[in-house]
Amino acid sequence: MDMSPKEYQQYVKKMSPKSPLWKDLLLAFLIGGAICVLGQLIQTFWGSVGLGQDDAATASSCSLVFLSALTTGLNWYNKLARFGGAGTLVPITGFANAVVSPAIDFKTEGFITGMAAKMFLIAGPVIVFGTLASVIYGVILMLFDLV
Questions:
Q1: What number of other Cβ atoms are within 10 A of residue 139's Cβ?
Q2: How far apart are CA 61 and CA 35, in angstroms?
Q3: Rounded distance, CA 56 to CA 116, Å?
Q4: CB 99 within 8 A of CB 121
Q5: Residue 147 has what pLDDT?
Q6: CA-based nearest residue to 115, from 125, 101, 95
Q7: What is the spatial distance between Cα 61 and Cα 116, in angstroms, rounded to a whole number?
Q8: Where are the domains of the chain?
Q9: Whole-angstrom Cα distance, residue 47 to residue 61?
Q10: What is the overall mean pLDDT for the chain?
Q11: In a 10 Å sphere around its CB, with 0-12 CB exposed, 13-18 middle and 19+ buried, how is residue 6 labelled?
């Protein structure tokens, strides 16, 4: 079967299943929103036990990272992601999942060469470019403060 690239693209488009866009959008919104509501409930809890607003926010972030890592280890986060799609990419929980997932996947290769080396395979670029962006942002703020 000899096809031109254009004919092949048309064939692939015809054979590919259609994505249920509105269903995916709704599920992402609901699951992402539920994760955010959970974060707010956790922050409210930490505030109710006597932490100040800043400390409660920090404790709730740590709690969300812990819960994300735990549910990733139990393979629940993956099941939630298959259901809720992009809604599970809520920054802090999605980031924790992106760090823990490769660590679990490569643990059979050993502690150093497997888990430790591959842990930041996905999250590494996020850390690098996030740090770079924060440095650039800080320099811009510094320059405007000097003007």
A1: 10
A2: 12
A3: 30
A4: no
A5: 45
A6: 101
A7: 23
A8: 21-121
A9: 13
A10: 88
A11: exposed
User: Token pair of 137, please?
Assistant: 């942002």
Q: Which two tokens stand for residue 134?
A: 């924060």
Q: Is 136 exposed, middle or buried (0-12, 13-18, 19+ CB in 10 A)?
A: exposed
What are 75's two structure tokens?
């393979």
Number of Cβ within a 10 Å radius of residue 112: 8
Helix intervals (H) in the chain: 5-15, 21-48, 53-73, 76-84, 91-105, 117-118, 123-146
Give me 89's structure tokens.
């990419």
d(CA 37, CA 33): 6
Angle at 81 between CA 78 and CA 87, to 5 degrees: 150
Two tokens, residue 45: 């809890």
Task: Name the band, by pLDDT with cuts 50, 70 and 90, for residue 54.
Answer: very high
pLDDT category, 119, cuts 50, 70, 90?
confident
